[in-house]
User: Fold these one by one.
Assistant:
Number 1:
Amino acid sequence: MKRDPGYYDFLPYNKRPKIEWPNGARVAFWVAPNIEFYELEPPKNPTRTSWPKPVPDVLGYSYRDYGNRAGFQRMMEAMERCGVRGSVSLNVAMCEHHPEIIKACAERGWEFYSHGTYNTRYTFGMSEAQERALIQDSIDTIRKHTGQKLDGWLAPALTYTESTFDLVAEMGLTYVCDLFHDDQPGPVKVKKGRLVSIPYSLEMNDAIAFSVSWVTPRHYAGIIKRQFDRLYAEGAESGTVMCIPLHPYLIGQPYRIKAFEEALRYITGHDKVWLATGREIANHFHSRYYEAFAKASLAVHDF
Amino acid sequence: MISDDYLKYPKRRYGMDHDRYEWSMLSKRKPVQWPNGARIALWVTVSLQWFPLDQQGKPFRAVGSLQTAYPDLRHYTLRDYGNRVGVFRIMNALEKHGIRASAPVNAAVAARYPSLVQEIAAKGWELVGHGLDMDRLHYEGMPDEAATIARSLEILGRFGKVRGWLSPAKSESHQTPDLLARAGIEYVCDWVNDDMPYPMKAGGRTLHAMPHSNDIEDANTLIAMHQDEDELREQWLDQFDVLYKEGGRVMVLPLHSWVMGHPYRIGTLETVLSHIMSRSGVWPATGAEILDAWKARQ
């Protein structure tokens, strides 16, 4: 095991090249719905059990299924009313299970990136060949069902190996969402290829807010606005990124959607906001700032 | 070490990864208009529960379970408060608006407090099977599940017809829906994946799943998530507003006599009921009535 993941050097927030987003925007804002399939009876994994209750965990399983049957539509319509495209964090088996949802996203010009095959299959402990096969499955499935090239990765259920980032970079992906160390994009050090980290967020993630922190929908809307206000203000100095990661089974509940839509409308009501997808942010950073950020970073020496 | 079989997906196919029910998006279904042109069906459920003092907690402890070393008098009595006092406050709050509830009743409550169950049955409340008690959860591998269901229904059935079922803690084994359907149950409240009834295949028959939200339960918000009554009121009203606007939906208010029946909480229920019942096109009904109306419109 390593003491430091080794993916990035030290680059303090106040000593960086200035980021300029398109059209003078201060914040690159993106919304990342996690469109997921959880299996009723997943195979056992030595590192993690899939369900908190014994299988069949009817409550846990059916709660997730709500997102696909009912919640997705509410979430999608709220985003559409606010003019926000999604960057779908996709369990790619959804393409086979529920193609209607994939079609609805594709028709709206949403981006698809990968969140593994199922949210109940974990990469902890996989061999390099196994993880490579998992990534290839995502590349192929997304290409086949949406015509899109796979550019982004959010590890399935946030499970990793030491090779994850080397493999996704080598296989042609351009960004990852798994590092929570920053409010701006940054280079990720990999063996081959070039990879950037795009700020996703656990703080703004509806799963953390609702299922871990147990906040109310109105409180969630409030923290979204506060997060945005500060990143918008700081974005006058150098462009920032704000992401709202969503789960249709959570945000798509009737009692949650109204407050969320108000918060989304608040954000999109500002003129210096770039309503982007993950890929667009990654491309912009790759082409203009990757090298400058890499060069400005300070090597880290452990004691 | 992960076996290569871990990367095989035998159920990766169109629809669900099981055969219990069909994949169906709510937005693609035919809209439902309730009786008398109502926009929304209001379904109030009041669970009457009993938590035994000699709790085993298998395979897990339900929300509201006893917490301390034996004998946990404190939680035992705080839950039993609902059956002695709390339920009567809820009864009055509902009666002001002529609302009849569906009551999931542990068989232990029916056996121990028959006069209470007679009283709610006489008021026209629906009796819903709710297992034996809150420490007899249904789970895969439990002993004698069919006998447990039969005994629960036999005891509660002494007080009236039982058409619906809510498993304690919404916990099921793989065969619970099959056993329920074979025992004559028509609907189950354990699956929280929809805002409308939908059919399930069970025991060679059709069983219906009714939309009984766990999220907006009083016990989930106030006890499990430690939110307060004002926050619960806002969430109930927001839930109602969105479902009312969509139209043709079921709004469930899932209550527990031991949670909502406290003096400081009952006012929240009264406020929410007044708001909802002041709107036009609200049809307060029992679960069985909602299911019958829904089936007649399919």
Number 2:
Amino acid sequence: MASSIPVSVPAEAPAAEAARGGRVAQRTRRLVAAGAVFVVLLTLMAAAAPWLAPQDPVRQSLRARLAAPTLEAADGRAHPLGTDHLGRDVLSRMIYGARVSLLVGFAAVMVGGLVGAALGILAGYRGGWTDTVIMTVADAQLAFPFILLAIGIIAVLGPSFPTLVIVIGLSGWVDYARVLRSQVLVLRSREFVDAILALGGAVPRIVARHILPNVLSTLVVIATLQLARAIVLEATLSFLGLGIQPPTPSWGGMIQEGREYLDSAWWISIFPGCLLLLTSLVVSRSGDWLRDLLDPTLRSE
Amino acid sequence: MRALLAFLGARLTRALVAVWLVSTVVFVVMRLSGDPVPLLLPPDAPRSEYARVAKELGTDRPLPVQYVVFLGHVAQADFGRSIHFREPAMRVVLGYLPATAELGLTAFVFAVLVAVPVGVISAVRRNTLVDQAAMGVALVGQSAPTFFLGILFILTLSLKAGLLPTSGRGDWTHLVLPALTLGAFAMASIARLTRSALLDVLRQDYVRTARAKGLREWRVVAKHAFRNAAIPVLTITGLQLGTLLGGAVVTETVFAWPGIGRLAIHSIYNRDYPVVQCVVFLSAVLFVALNFFIELVYGFLDPRIRPR
């Protein structure tokens, strides 16, 4: 009888803990869903820009220059978020600008993910010199503020969509490579892998069937965090005049163009900036929440 | 002692490899950009003049030879002459370095002085309104693009409130906004990390023991908890000092701060590649040296980090 008292106490505590954990997990799941909805809406907005944008984003109008945000139609057109120094509609430019941000962002994440995954698997599988070289390069890249190198490379090669995607993509390959390498190292020492190899199984098949499913959730988390980083990096490069060139609207470029008119026409910079900030915040937080959900051991306080 | 030497050797090798890789990338990128000779000559220069300059620059030799020569020059910190300033690129960059150092160090000190107390208060007053507000601001600070943050500060604090100048370098008021902008990310990261490191430590048994023996709470936090939480905080703080260098490019451009970041951007527009190379290389060396030094300090601070 006496022994049942101490036993019942710890037996109850984990249950309560689990219940609270369950509530937290549910809340996190909802937050992740909300973040996903935001990204989907933003993507839809970018895709449907020609139908959604009230006006042509590059159409200039001398009479409507630096018009303040208003719902009333001047010169027959309403500019709910105002116009810029060339009389172009800020709202329409913001909607079109999402195309550059998302296109470069997603493409860069793909490039970084593919390069990182390939090098990570190679390093883990081959070991030895290959591993040493790849991981040394990874260390070296982390030991350096990449934006400086990115600026140097783009300055020389000239800003274009492929250059931007490759440079931004390569700035983020290390995280993927680290994760895949460690997974491959773990799996390579397992007996069933030796068995598959002995039976004549091919390495790509092992990777596809046994390694990728194991690391998929981690890869998704890294990709989400990298997406936020890529979007901010693209906007930063556009702001410095090294991104997609005008007249194509991009958020970073708009913020740069509005800088000179900050005192008289703040809306040119501030509206696209707020959308950029919101996107960066939501996407990176979604990555954090996703990590909490998929990998509780990494949960951040 | 031997373990320590091996540790130093490994870290030094890594630092040197990083610098070598960066210079190699610089070389490859510069060669991809095409022939530098036409940039140095007027468009109507005679062919013999082209050949002379090519010989002078060494671009008429095979690429591997050029690479070795380039590495030799790098080792002597020689990046050639600036096309725009008409003096050695290294001298130009070194002239702009103090402004960047001033900005970077101020931002860093600023960030630490604000972030550590905020993180401690957040941890001690966990889940209160203060904690939630502070961490909310930190989250925004961590994901806000640096250049937009700068513009928000200029709009609100300079243009609307008229408190501080918008740009340039002068007395201390010119330093406030750029330092705040540059330090924002580091501030947010350090505050969040201080909080979680301290929360981790406050859960430990020895903290409970300290409380149980009747110590005042502030003594428990200051003496028993904070000292143990300091090592991860130091790690991230050291790393942040390095990332400030990268952020300086953007911040200096926004605030027209005459440092090496703005010099790099201007040199790109002027196609003054020797200066661009020099800035990239010098930042790499500074960054790597800084990280090396920080790792060294840990090795002495925390014996557990020292490898066997």
Number 3:
Amino acid sequence: MDEISLLFAGFRAALTPHNVALMMLGISLGVLVGVLPGLGGPNGVAILLPLTFAMGATPEGRVSAIIMLSSIYWGALFGGAITSILFNIPGEAWSVATTFDGYPLAQKGRAGEALTAAFTGSFVGAFFGVVMITFLAPTVARFALKFGPPAFFGVYFLTFASFAGTSKSSYAKTAAATLIGFILAAIGMDTVTGQLRLTFGTEKLLNGVDFLVAVIGLFGLGEIFLSMEEGLAFRGSSGRIDLKVVLKTWREFPRYWRTVLQSCFIGAWMGIKPGGAIAASFMSYAVAKRTSKNPDEFGTGRVEGVIAPETAAHAAGVSAMLPMLTLGIPGSGTAAVLLGGLMMWGLQPGPMLFVEQKEFVWGLIASMYLSNAAGLIVVLATVPLFAAILRVPFSIIAPLIVVVCAVGAYTVHNSMFDVWIMLIFGVIGYVFKKLDYPLAPLTLALVLGDRMEDAFRQSMLGSQGKLSTFWGHPLEGTLMTVGIALLLLPVLTKLWTVMRGRTTPASI
Amino acid sequence: MVEIVVAVTLLAFGALVAWDSYRTGSGWSASGGPRAGYFPFRLGVLLVLSALAILAQTFWQRADLRGRFIEPGQIRPVLTVALPSLAYVAGVQWLGIYVASAIFVGAFMHFVGRLAWWKCVAVAIGHVVFMYWLFEKRFFLPLPKGPLEAWLGIS
């Protein structure tokens, strides 16, 4: 098979001492970022992206850079579980479900078992995701090569429409957040006509709002403000893991094969869609509970209750790379930032990557196998270290994170103006989180805005301005129709219940 | 209250975007193809509509009167990090990032965390030296500098 030989070439590219060192560095930084409140996958990668500018100049450098940055992503996925289990504080949104049974287990003195089970589940989930990418991605990319601008617009449209149907926030707020993202992306020089728009006469806005700066503010600073509200005092169980506990947990692990398998499928399926990891972890927990013989024991400290959300979150986090590599549409916030990195290094995300940048794509896929295996070993060995970091007083961690955010924002374009923008986004992130405006569609719109607009305008040019071009072929027609259905469905069901007089009109 | 203020702000922002895009040209150009403001104009109009929907919803549910944006006891801790952060960014502008960071971290640890002075000094100086090594020496990314660096002759 063609894929296998390309994969082995990828392993050869990824397995240099330099790249393995970067992988280890990335994983350690990722776990740190996942453990600390206020830093997470998206802004952790965003802050470290500027360090890879120089690396992006050569093809080998680009492979090294993506290996380091994606390793941060995997590390952050592992790290979220540590705080959830030991401190009952989810380091990441996708580890919220892990606290339900993880913390009770830790209180019973079985923290080592819970952590080992969570990490092992994560590893299996990730492995499942990478295998899926290895065999599915080339096919999807080959198919997507035939897409014209209208089809790409259809895919983008469907991506955003799916937020409206699935988001837990109110419909109008999801729409507002998405639109703000698109508007911010439109600021600056128009790529087609060269005209300035929405700059209001200031040169500073010439290049628009950089999404990296926005991500650092929204997720980094905003999160610190939120954490301060809770008045964080970490009081947690010790995170000692000895080899005996690990081996015992591994011996018992096959017993949970059903939970693991269904979580893998849920994760892989949800991960392809945007915002998947969080939804996948909750869904997988719920399914594990429903299919269990004793569902009442969930929440009191069942090992399955830890395995299910972690396996699904990792499977989803890894699968999020599939649409990013093949279509240029990131399936998660962190994947969106990685996509931004690709563009910064001068690569065009999308199906052409599989044709023009074979070494890059397969180096990345091979590194995903390696870094998740390495990650499992690293986290098992270093949990006590990271648990100790959480005992550092928050009055040291909070200002340091603010400094890291400022440095990260500055280094994107070496601009002080960006640091101010980051500060403003910090306040916006805080207020939006409190008022339940979703940040995920905002970020995604900010990343994809220009590409979506280009696809739209190219389609319009091709059809002399007739919207019917989006229904010109069965493929585009299906994408658009499903998208519109997803957009209208929540409104229609609401109207239906109101008309039946069952409920008073609540949120639309 | 905050809910309404945010919705009205979004409304105004949407209107501003729509107006500016209309000025740039939101229609179809003579040479064929949509003008620069074509896409943003429609986004602005949609944002105005969404903001109106949020307002309607808020008044309808009286949600704003029921839920409180922030508990009174939480305002202080949020401000204890928000205001120093603001001062810090202003400080970076004037003093450069190294001096501002050292003062910000040291002062925060001392006044908010009430930690021993030698710990504050150690972390304040230590993280700045590490930052200098990592960014300037290791990755050749210059960070903003101020009068102190000029006096020391570090560019």
Number 4:
Amino acid sequence: MTTEEKLAQALRTIADRAENREVLSGVIAKRRHRTRRRATGALAAVCAVVLGWGALVAWPSPPVVVEAVAPRADSVERVWPQAVFTMPKGSTPLVAISAKEVLVWTERGKIEVYDAAAKRSRVVAALSQAPRYRAVDGDRALWLAGGYAWVAPLRTSGKARRIGPITGENVDRIALAGEYVVWSSPLDGVWRMRLDGGRPERVATSKGLQLVEWPWATDEPLDVRTNPTKVVNLQTGRTIKIRPLPGVEGLRCGPTWCTGTRGESTLVQRTDGAWSRVHRGGPRGYPFQDRFFPGFGEIYDARTDTTVTFEGAELETSGGRHWSGGAGVIFWPQGDGVVTVNLAAVP
Amino acid sequence: MVEFEEFVRARSHALLRYGLVLTGSADDAADLVQEALLKLSSSWRLVRNKNDPEGYVRTIMARQHVSWWRRRRREHLTAEVPSPVHEDEHELGEIWQCLRALSARQRAVLVLRYYEDLADGEIAARLGISQATVRSQASRALATLRVRGQALTGRWR
């Protein structure tokens, strides 16, 4: 094989190892960052930039641009100081457990509970790779691996228990529900299996629904621009009808709050359509605990109508910012640690 | 008409792959892709009508990569980054090391020629240099790879 052939093969092999990442949030964050910088020098320049695609970040018209570059909301460290802590480097927060604890994946190949108050962690389980889907309740951790669900105690020592196999294609939501593990995949309804075994069974009234946060599920459409019609409590059968505001697309709703887009703006609205707010921080997707919407450098708490900002880590080459998120956690590397925002610590 | 967000969702992985072979680092690749998409977003309405927004982004990425590399080289040496090559992949690791040692422009020329399969004229247009420069850069880069490859393994021709 010639040098050229080896080179072509090597480049293809390396390229195939590129992980897919969510890049849109970084693009929007860069735009906001640059816009702020320019705004200090020349407002006219800011307006010219935003008249382009920048409106997607929820600047619906030039006058709002002025508002967007006005004083920023307070930082998360000032508004929710109890929710911010730094854990040792080498840990990746996965899920918020409680006000002081988060489930983490460590470089040592272990799932651990990190206690921010004690600054200590304890091992839950050793795994060959970080689980893609995971959930917690107060006392247990749950994750999917190899077609099975695994449940391990968080408070006491004990081995992880295997449950399954978990049936269904493309299972992408899981939760613990008392003595059951529950899961769902797009359009396939919510299924459950007892922790001590048995057969999988579809949860009553869940046909066509996807889990949001147990016990809530919704008829999430496959098309990202289509709105769902309802959010259902699978324990009580209570059904909340979703009332999209005029022109809103792609709503994703918890029982009380939704996010969606209208034109090139992102907005948060109440499920019943009674209230809405346009956001420049671009929160998207389902809320955590039916209230928090992490966005691009911002977290919006719909319950208290509070927006806090976070900085993230600076990218070396361009000066942009980056961060990552899990269920109820947002984090970024800083020095020898990982700065973590734990939304379960916000009262 | 494809909208910007749809374009990003559909093509970001392909761009990250291209970014990784250009920069050698997953983080730098993500940064490069975001920077290029930021520029694309500003002129999206014009570019989408020309039916090749991806070519436009890839051109920005190649040029931006060369520009950043110059700046970073002045500031400090490139830090150690996680390698996409596994420890037991000796030959691939050697090629990767050699590629990383090339200048950004030389590596960009090789990536465009052997990963993107572009002709020298297209590479010249993408990097904003002459075809003669493309040929000379490619020639030097391949010579460096052969010499380094021989030094490392004695197997490269």
